[in-house]
Amino acid sequence: MTGPKLNERPGTRATLRGYHMSASKARVVLNLIRGEDITTAREILAGTNREAADVIGKVLASAVANAVTNDAMQADELFVSAAYADEGVTMKRFTPRARGRAGKIMKRSCHITVIVSRLDDERLETLRNARSAQAAVSRTRRVASSRRRADQQASLNKRETAAVEAAENEALEAEANANATAYDEAYETDTSEFDTVDTPVEDLETDVLETNETDGTGVAEASVDESPVDESPVDESPVEETPAEETPADEVPEEVVAEAPTDETATDDTTEETK
Prior knowledge:
The protein has helices at residues 23-33, 38-46, 51-70, 121-193, 201-215, 254-259, 263-274; strands at residues 12-19, 78-87, 91-96, 102-107, 110-118. It has 275 residues and is an alpha+beta fold. Among the domains are: 9-95 and 103-119, CATH 3.90.470.10; 120-183. The strands form two sheets. The chain has a three-stranded antiparallel β-sheet. A two-stranded antiparallel ribbon has the order 3-4. A hairpin with a 5-residue loop joins strand 3 and strand 4 (102-107). Residues 217-224 have low confidence and may be disordered.
């Protein structure tokens, strides 16, 4: 006796009718997800590079939604119990060929059906254990990966910190060298100011006079005679003194006598001034 027909199998189904694709192309993808749980079936469809994979994924999502909404099932407890594709209406078209002949074009369609059912208890327990173990392994891998990244970041931070400290030390050393150089230059300048310089006396006198003029002390400018000094021998012979000619008192000129003021005129002038 044959088994139950596909349309009589128990479970929640979803059907897409009249999709413009041949049934053979859809069956290639349906064979991949048949008998798999919902999570695995979704992962397989996501990794399949075929046009039918997108369409079958939508049909599978519709079947799961029907099971959750209409039959009150849990989505993580379902599996693909049946998946098949039936041939639909075929549209016939023709294209001209050589010698007046016509070429036939068959535009095929299909009906895609996906049925989901609940897993039995034994298989469900096995699946849950496998998922928990897989989750633990994944968690361990994530922790190891995060620790590895943390160690790499820590080593990178250490190298960056060492580089920054080295740069700061170099800057401090350069600053210290610059300060020492500036101090040495300043010390040399201070000591050079106290060095004695032999300057001629004439230059010193000229400098003193110029400073007095700029200060406004009122000292007259001294003209320095830079003409050569006559060093010829001086005649030290005694000089003969000639007696001055004495004029007698009787011979005083009349003009002097006339101009000499008398005592009376002098007294009159003084009285006028007092008045």
